Amino acid sequence: MNQKQRRPVMLDSDTLSTLKDIASKYGMTLSSYLRALFSGVIDVESKGFFAPAIIRRTIVLNRLTKLGFSLVPRQVLDSCTGINEEELVQLGRNLGSTLRFVGVEFTDLLDLVTENMQNVLREDNKVLLLPSNNRTDNMLRKLIKGIAEGYNLNTREEGDAMVIELQSNT
Fold this sequence. Notes:
The protein is α+β, with helices and mostly antiparallel strands. The chain is built from seven helices and four strands; from the N terminus they run ααααααββαββ. It has a four-stranded antiparallel beta sheet with strand order 1-2-4-3, with helices on one face. Strand 1 and strand 2 form a beta hairpin. The protein is elongated and about 65 Å long.
C-alpha cells in the first residue's frame, strides 16, 4: 500500500484558530479545508497564476459585481459614443470612494482595470498613463483618474500623460 507521508505545518495559534473557524463555517474539518485550499492553490499555480493575486482579484471583481458592474468585451466599449469625459471622471470618483470605503486596495483595482491597456507604466510610488490612439484606453484613463481621486490620490497632467501619485497605504 502506497500511503502518502504527512508533514507538520507550523501555524501561530491565532491563524490556526481563524482557520478552524472558517472550516467550521463550511462544515469541514481543518484538514479537509486545508486540503481543498491547497488543491485550489496548486490548480491556480499550475495554470501560471500567482494564487494570492488571484484571491485579491476575485475580491475586487466580487465588490464590483455587487456595485452593478459587469465584464464587457472591449469591442462594446469601442462602440460607445456620446460619453461625456466629465461623467466618466465623476463615475470613477464615486466608484473609487465606495471601493476605498469597503477596503479594496487601489493597486489591486488598478491592476484589474489596466490589465489590457497599453501605455501604462507603474513605478513604486506613481502610475503614468500615457495617451493612446485607442479610444477605449482613453475612456478608461478618465475613469481611472476619477477612481484615483475617489481614493484621495493626487492626479496631475504632465503634457499628454496623466500621473497618479500612490500612497504607501493604498
